[in-house]
Design brief:
six-stranded mixed sheet; globular; 6 helices; about 300 residues; 17 strands; six-stranded antiparallel sheet; Gyrase A, domain 2; alpha+beta
């Protein structure tokens, strides 16, 4: 069993509290805030009114409010966006990124900890701090959200040893889940095209939220023809937003071109076939379909 832990220094923690916090979030996020409790956390997104992707979040109950675990490069924008929607709501929004940190460790290790359960998003306390099984996919492991001052003692008590964050990124990319550079996706595809339904990030039974109408329409009318999929560079160089071809037919576009690349792929196009090498202007690549995504 691997006792490695990844300190996700590229993640930020916001905190939303106040008497209107629950309703405030429910009107904004793509998932149902009622799923979030002391024993359950959820994955969700913030979309544009047209249903385009803006930000993704992991929402964790903490005391009388909610931790928002998000990518640090987007945290200031998310903070501003939430404040924009705040208007007269009785909520307080804090950026706690200088105080709290996110640590991630393996699924098998998580199962050995007293109090854990093999349920996506299951959350319990370890020395008063939440540990949760990643609500997107259990093979992303568990997350510990903890005050920086307590971090190393808790890691010692859990017998966890620091591992390179690149190993976490690589695991996430192989699973087909974007580990970083989320800003490169912003406004370029619909939230449902990010596979958020399969990653437990969209609830189609909840009431209205920002972007709900288009998201529901795409689902209801079976108009989902493109998906965000991981790619592997075979040779050459990929550029952001460049076209991917199969026999000179356009079948997709590179969205994240560096390190852990992803592309928006017309997976229903007859020219799209697994295990084929596709071309861009200056490179070639393979496209992978994650096991959890049934196409």
């Amino acid at each position: 069993m691997n006792n490695g832990v990844f300190i996700l220094e590229d993640r930020a923690i916001l905190y939303i509290s106040g008497s209107d916090a629950k309703d405030f979030l429910q009107n904004l996020i793509s998932n149902d805030i009622n799923k979030v409790s002391d024993s359950s956390s959820c994955f969700a997104s913030l979309l544009t009114p047209q249903g385009k992707f803006l930000y993704e979040l992991i929402i964790v109950k903490h005391k009388s409010g909610y931790f928002i675990d998000c990518e640090k490069s987007q945290s200031k924008e998310i903070f501003n966006q939430l404040n924009l929607y705040k208007i007269r709501s009785k909520v307080e929004i804090l950026n706690l990124s200088n105080e709290f940190v996110v640590a991630s460790f393996g699924y098998e290790k998580y199962l050995t900890i007293a109090g854990s359960k093999d349920i996506l998003g299951f959350t319990f306390k370890f020395r008063e701090d939440p540990i949760l099984l990643d609500p997107r996919n259990k093979y992303l492991g568990a997350r510990l959200i903890i005050n920086l001052e307590k971090l190393y003692l808790s890691l010692k008590k859990l017998n966890l040893k620091n591992d390179k964050i690149e190993n976490y990124y690589s695991r996430s990319h192989k699973l087909g889940i974007v580990p970083k550079n989320l800003n490169k996706l912003k406004n370029k595809l619909f939230g449902i095209e990010c596979n958020f339904e399969e990653l437990n990030g969209i609830d189609f039974k909840k009431g209205c939220y920002v972007g709900q109408e288009n998201t529901a329409r795409i689902k209801l009318k079976n108009k989902l023809s493109k998906r965000l999929l991981p790619i592997e560079i075979i040779d050459g160089k990929l550029n952001e937003d460049e076209t991917i071809y199969s026999d000179n037919i356009e079948i997709g576009k590179v969205l994240i071109n560096e390190e852990y690349p992803f592309a928006l792929i017309k997976y229903s196009n007859e020219k799209f076939k697994k295990d084929v090498i596709f071309k861009t202007q200056n490179g070639s690549l393979k496209i992978f379909i994650p096991e959890w995504l049934k196409l």
